[in-house]
Amino acid sequence: MRGALAALSVWSAAAQAAESGAPDLTREAIENAAFRESPEEAKPDKASKPGKKSKKEAEAKKEADAKKDAEKKPDPLLVKVQVLLDRARFSPGAIDGRDGENLRGALKAFAAAQGLPEGDRLTREVFDRLQATGKEPVVTQYTITEEDVKGPFVEKMPAKMEEQAEVGPMRYTNAREMLAERFHMQRDLFSALNPNVPLDKPGGTLVVAAVPPLGEGKVEGAPVAPKVTRIEVDKRTKRVRAFAEDGKLTADYPASIGSSEKPAPDGSAKVKAVAFDPWYTYNPKYQFKGVKATKKFGKTESHGCIRLTNWDARDLASHTKKGAKVEFLDK
């Protein structure tokens, strides 16, 4: 995803059948997905206790688990949970129907905000609270329009930043990429839900996540309630948290924070301005690796900053007041 702001382990009937193949991913399966606790989940995981594995072993296991999760078919229950988290503003990142670090972070944040026992697993209590956030369907239908088909699209996104500057903001290579992002979805899930719908002509009906579609342009007026007056950028958990004037946590987003080349700062800062669909300017003084430009140029992707999905960035920007405090945490 291109940044737009300069900024479970679970048990279900679907997961139980994972060994023999995930259930059909249909609108009905997602809406009717129900939580079931595995007996194994109730047992303490002795292997996960601190000190049992070296840091290198833990990282290797994490990579192996992530690869295994990525190979699994989307789980209808996880699609449902991710949509509900997204709408509650505890973002799981791109909705993909799979377990992963972003989903676990969102579950942990939501549980804490609800006063439930801390943990990154989907429990009966967390699932019930999520379902209580609204009775609206978690997936809906969308009809492809003439504008969707027209684009404009970029045949291929250039690799070099100097060339990307000529492309302009919010450009996509095809309708699939554009529509998946509009509804906060990972492209493979979008395709899995709509296997036989042609995207090169209007009129087709798509099944998409029932979330506020990604918008474009400036959001007019004062910040949307609840207004954010404090933001925490947690470099350890790789999450960005937004707090209202009364100190209440109102939103929590996954983020890519800094880079080894240009790490995120420490300490605190203040929001001086909020810009929608911003145009970033690259200064040769930054001396980014692989960029040989000697003059300033515009680009639309952040580099070494705090990068959110486009929809999360717009949501945070829509609620944030000028002068809001930003704190960078690394402990």
Notable characteristics:
single chain, about 325 residues, alpha+beta, L,D-transpeptidase catalytic domain-like, 3 domains, 5-stranded mixed beta sheet, two-stranded antiparallel ribbon, 11 helices, 11 strands, about 30% helix, about 15% strand, globular
What features would you describe in this structure?
This protein has 331 residues and is α+β, with helices and mostly antiparallel strands. It has 3 domains: 13-131, no CATH class; 139-209, no CATH class; 228-329, L,D-transpeptidase catalytic domain-like (Beta Barrel). The protein has 11 helices and 11 strands. The strands form 4 sheets. A 5-stranded mixed β-sheet has the order 5-4-3-11-7. Strands 1-2 form a two-stranded antiparallel ribbon. Strand 4 (239-244) and strand 5 form a beta hairpin. Helix 9 packs across helix 10 (187-193). It is globular.
Gist of the model:
The chain has 331 residues and is an alpha+beta fold. The protein has 11 helices and 11 strands.
Helix tally?
Answer: 11
Residue fraction in strands = 15-25%
Radius of gyration: 21 Å
* Count of strand segments: 11
Q: What percent of the residues sit in helical stretches (DSSP H or I)?
A: 25-40%
Trace the largest sheet across and list its strands.
Answer: 5-4-3-11-7
List the helices and strands and how they pair.
Blueprint: H1 13-16, H2 27-32, H3 55-71, H4 76-87, H5 101-113, H6 124-131, E1 139-143, H7 146-150, H8 161-164, H9 175-182, H10 187-193, E2 205-209, E3 228-234, E4 239-244, E5 249-254, E6 256-257, E7 267-270, E8 280-282, E9 297-299, E10 306-307, H11 310-319, E11 320-329
Parallel strand pairs: 3-11
Antiparallel strand pairs: 1-2, 3-4, 4-5, 6-10, 7-11, 8-9
Helix pairs in contact: 9-10
